[in-house]
Automatic annotation (TrEMBL):
Entry-linked InterPro entries: Ig-like_fold, X25_BaPul-like
Lineage of the species this protein comes from: Bacteria, Bacillati, Bacillota, Clostridia, Lachnospirales
Domain of life, per lineage: Bacteria
Protein name per Swiss-Prot or TrEMBL: Amylopullulanase X25 domain-containing protein
Organism of derivation: Blautia faecicola
Domain Amylopullulanase X25: 429-517
Pfam family, one: X25_BaPul_like
Length: 529
């Protein structure tokens, strides 16, 4: 399938090419430090990876900065020697530290801001928020960690962001993840100075970039300024709900993920921009005493007491493969503009996983998730390569057959009337029943917004969901979200919590599409595996 996909761009990138890259994206956090790089390169080649998210970037400055950039460039050179089409992404995060004061500001950075060059280093205190009561500063003795969130309304912070962005561009990186943009722009009214800075970074890439382009994203649903978008695409982590009805520590993803539309920096427009969704990390094991907390309480502590990737890494191999497939299908049907950025390499901090090594068979602890097939070359791999290849080989069949509308926040049917009878169509139609807990809603909630159906025209409402576990579930359709009139396959109205219809999924991770037609009150259920 990959042979038919276009990955060509120079200067600007078309929507087709951008989405091709996003559809072959992985999160490869800190790949520049990998101790199994040769096997990582093999996996990248054999999987057909085209976008390496978070391949470089720093949070704390624990390494000499020049060494960091040297290793970052070495990685880019090795990846591009193998496949020159691959985009590597680095990160300019929402965190700066005292150690930035060891970095001398190059003349070209001053000159880009219209300033007279001077021999000095960056100044932390001139880049931070001045109001320490905001909680945006974190004072520590270690200069590699002492710091806080930069204030991009201050020129010193913008100097730092520009410096780091341009250094990564010089290293061969063609994408930058800009972290939590809504934090460091708190004092930048209308993000005017941020937009100017991003324009400067883009101008630098037009001259110095490998293909004269830098792709910018951040954790945001989008920033639209007078019709023009700040980012090339958007990125966000998943939202979850615990699935208490199933033994163990299972969870399901919750339908969400609006992505702002407008004019893309590349010149084309869309009502909804493409975006990536990923398993995020923020601390690994975030609940120290998991074994002492009741199951019902632990279920609501982040992801069962872990951050997202740590929870995933701590599942058995079969469960990891199951959830990877579930997430891929969930993303495919919940927004035709969203792409699942598969986990390739990601830190799990103190949520270490014990496993037998692939080289000597001894038990060891791994503090990084790696998708690699376990081998002597990658002895602590988690073995999801084959699952990833199978998912990518399936393409976008489910998206084409059963996806929910791209505008998830608009359900439609406002001021719509049946042409024959003149009856006004209901704006709110909810499908409810025992299946709801398996899609992140409260079971038997006829007023749930999470299982509200979308109006697609011709008196028809639909909703697609992924049922993670095979089984038999009941359901009914409630107009206006009330129980005064509910419908099943026979089209007769019923009142209250009376009998429901049933559907059965034969396999795990089955996509179920509900369809309801007003006036005829016909209800149908379709299934896609």
């Amino acid at each position: 399938m990959e042979e038919t996909m276009n990955f060509t761009f120079d200067g600007n990138i078309s929507r087709e090419v951008l989405e091709n890259y996003l559809s072959r994206s992985v999160t490869a956090a800190g790949l520049y430090e990998s101790k199994t790089l040769e096997d990582d390169l093999r996996a990248i080649r054999e999987m057909g990876v085209k976008f390496l998210g978070r391949a470089s970037g720093i949070w704390y400055m624990t390494m000499d900065d020049e060494e960091h950039f040297w290793l970052s460039k070495e990685l880019a050179d090795k990846v591009h020697a193998q496949d020159p089409e691959v985009i590597l992404q680095s990160c300019v995060f929402e965190w700066i530290t005292r150690r930035m004061e060891t970095v001398e500001i190059p003349d070209y950075v001053f000159e880009a801001f219209g300033m007279e060059p001077e021999p000095r280093c960056f100044r932390l205190d001139d880049a931070l928020f001045t109001d320490e009561s905001s909680g945006y500063t974190s004072r520590r003795d270690d200069p590699a960690k002492d710091g806080g969130i930069p204030d991009l309304s201050r020129q010193e912070a913008r100097l730092w962001f520009y410096y780091r962005a341009t250094r990564y561009i010089d290293c061969g990186y063609e994408a930058l993840h800009m972290g939590q943009v809504h934090l460091y722009t708190a004092n930048d009214k209308g993000m005017a100075k941020t937009a100017e800075l991003f324009g400067m970074i883009r101008a630098y890439a037009r001259i110095h970039g490998r293909r004269h382009k830098i792709l910018l994203d951040a954790h945001t649903h989008g920033v639209n300024i007078r019709g023009k978008l700040l980012f090339d695409y958007h990125a966000m982590p998943f939202t979850r709900m615990p699935l208490l009805e199933v033994p163990g520590e299972e969870l399901v993803l919750v339908r969400e993920g609006y992505s702002e539309g407008g004019e893309n920096p590349n010149g084309w427009s869309a009502k909804t921009m493409p975006y990536l969704m990923e398993y995020d990390n923020w601390g690994g094991l975030v609940v120290d005493d998991r074994e002492n907390i009741p199951r019902e309480e632990l279920a609501w502590r982040d992801w069962w007491g872990y951050d997202q990737i740590a929870w995933f890494a701590n599942q058995p191999e079969a469960s990891r493969n199951h959830f990877l497939e579930y997430t891929y299908k969930w993303t495919e049907i919940n927004n035709p503009n969203a792409y699942f950025e598969l986990p390739f390499r990601r830190m799990i901090h103190n949520a270490e996983v014990s496993m037998k090594r692939g080289d000597n068979g001894e038990t060891d602890a791994q503090d990084f998730y790696q998708i690699n097939t376990k081998s002597a070359e990658c002895p602590m791999g988690f073995a999801q390569e084959e699952t990833a290849k199978r998912l990518w080989a399936a393409g976008h069949m489910l998206r084409e057959k059963a996806a929910n509308p791209e505008m998830l926040i608009r359900y439609g049917a406002e001021e719509v009337y049946d042409e024959e009878t003149g009856m006004k169509l209901p704006e709110k139609i909810v499908v409810y029943g025992s299946f709801q807990s398996h899609v992140g809603a409260v079971k038997n909630d006829s007023n749930s917004e999470l299982t509200r159906m979308y109006y697609i025209g011709d008196n028809t409402y639909t909703l697609s969901v992924v049922i993670p576990f095979a089984g038999t579930y009941d359901y009914s359709v409630a107009t206006y979200g009330t129980l005064s009139a509910t419908y099943q396959a026979d089209g007769y109205p019923r009142s209250g919590s009376s009998n429901k219809a049933y559907f059965t999924t034969q396999k795990d991770n089955t996509v179920v599409r509900f369809r309801y037609q007003f006036i005829s009150n016909k209800v149908t259920v379709e299934m896609f595996e």
